[in-house]
Amino acid sequence: MYKLNSLQYKTSKDFQINSDYSLEVLKDNTMSENLIKDFKKKFSYSSLKTMSLSYESFLGFLFTLEGKISVSLGESENLVKAALKYKNLGLDIDFININKDGKLAYEEIKEDCNFLFLSSYIMDTYVKVDLKRVRTLTSAKIISNISANLDCCYVDIAFFDAYKLTSFASSSIVLHNGELSKQNIGEIDIIAIKNIYESFSYNKKYANKSYFIKCLEEELKEDIFFFVDNSNTLENSLHFGLKGIKAREVIRTLSLASIFVTNGEGCSLGLSKPSRILQSMSYTELESRQALSLSLDLVINDEEIKKIAKKIAKAYRQIKALNE
């Protein structure tokens, strides 16, 4: 089985938590407090909160910020939906577009912004964002989901997505330096903190992406196309399109051969609608439905890559013939 649909998500593992981590008002919470202290120290932040990364939570989060807010259209679906609602209420927020090549429109970042939601990569396409460059363009507090690389060097408020890191949809974590209100101890999801903390063991060995692309191009020829330059994307991800068929048809067919791929990530994962990100890059709805994503965080040798590429091409040709 080739599980190429995990993207940067880790494979879930069994975990246990000692009852001594339970939070109670009139008891010694030493173990929980030490875990929180270690988490903050690891990333050099002074404060920690837990919250859901749902639409409702993001909308509430926006209301806690005082000042002008900017949100990249390359952020998660829930965050963008919450930002649009916030704007519809007449509040001060604007959006940063994604260019046709998939890169952030850096020229749209405003110096007078107070808070900027901008993660280290663009959802769905995995194009990396240069946060170091962004820091030179604005004095805004940068709020970033750093789950893909755990890099908080240029980030003022950091999100750790529980699902991306653990495969469990528990509460996620927000680290900051006093920009946000303090959370009551009874509201802290200590199980989520422990599970996320124990997930920080990234596999830095990835399959050979350039060779994977070469094999796909040899097998599919003019039927494959790329929405973005994959040299600008996360090292463990590969994103491309297959002309003339919908991605979900390939996904179903490949799963029968124990090859599991996906149609996207933050905006598209598990959804029947096409990627909002790709459409914001000016691709049509039809083109957006042709997108496929592979995770390369497994150590797959060149022979296996060639075999997978052949099976993808075979599945594509079969589906296209049936459709005709």
Description:
The protein is α/β, with parallel strands linked by helices and 324 residues long. The protein folds into two domains: 19-197, Type I PLP-dependent aspartate aminotransferase-like (Major domain) (Aspartate Aminotransferase, domain 2, 3-Layer(aba) Sandwich), CATH 3.40.640.10; 204-323, Aspartate Aminotransferase, domain 1 (Alpha-Beta Complex), CATH 3.90.1150. 33% of the residues lie in helices and 15% in strands. The protein has eleven helices and twelve strands. A seven-stranded mixed sheet has the order 2-8-7-6-5-3-4, with helices on both faces. Strands 9-10-12 form a three-stranded antiparallel sheet, with helices on one face. A two-stranded parallel sheet has the order 1-11. Helix 1 crosses helix 6, helix 2 (55-63) crosses helix 3 and helix 8 crosses helix 11. It is globular, with a radius of gyration of 21 Å.
